[in-house]
Amino acid sequence: MYLVLVRHGQTSSNVTGALDTGRPGAPLNDRGLQQAQRLAARWENEVAPAPTTVAVSPLTRTKQTAAPLCARYSLTPLVRPGIREVRSGDLEMNAGISDIARYMGTLAPWAQGEWGVRMPGGESGSEILTRALPVVHEVLSSVRRTAGEDGVGVIVAHGALNRVIAATLATDITVNLVMKYRLENTHTCVLELPHGHDLNDVSGLIGAFHAKTWNERPLDAWDVSDDVTMSLNNG
């Protein structure tokens, strides 16, 4: 069974670098809308087999990104607050390098399992997982019911959240990988869950996946040496 994490298309806040994590958030700009159309058109050739279940966050940009994909495959997306972006708290809508570095720097401990660390004025890693993992579980359970072990679940979400989810679910997604290389807009991370994996326990998803790709490329295509330079981009 596959789980595909998708980052939404480009917004004006992505262009300016603003930490835009509130609701409803900036909509896709013209480039973002084009990216969403291309994502749907290239899905089976470049990403994964046809999707079985799609979930999106309540933020406008994820719903717009998923719309062409869902239309192409006649799916109705699940709208789930649990996969909204990591809230930036005291840093909301700031675009300064130091503020973005503080935001992204908080993700690194989470990606290493240090979930008690808290975003300034925002959420802890534990709170992120408490809201996000049940959505992952719901998507996978829906896929198994509908298409069995060969189905494909899709979560259309956000740059920071996808980094945390990927590093939590797959042991071969390292902190160096997710902090050094962002998911570009409408790019994907493909994770594979072993056939027959027990879905009765949400916590059993942690570390259960094998990563096939990050940002559209196999894992061995990325330099994950220890001299990590953070990619200061979220959303």
Automatic annotation (TrEMBL):
PROSITE patterns found in the cross-reference section: PG_MUTASE (PS00175)
Record InterPro entries: His_Pase_superF_clade-1 (IPR013078), His_PPase_superfam (IPR029033), PG/BPGM_mutase_AS (IPR001345), PGM_Phosphatase (IPR050275)
GO cellular component: cytoplasm
SUPFAM superfamilies, sorted: Phosphoglycerate mutase-like (SSF53254)
Alphabetized GO MF terms: phosphatase activity
Name of protein: Histidine phosphatase family protein
Species annotation: Schaalia canis
Source taxonomy: Bacteria, Bacillati, Actinomycetota, Actinomycetes, Actinomycetales
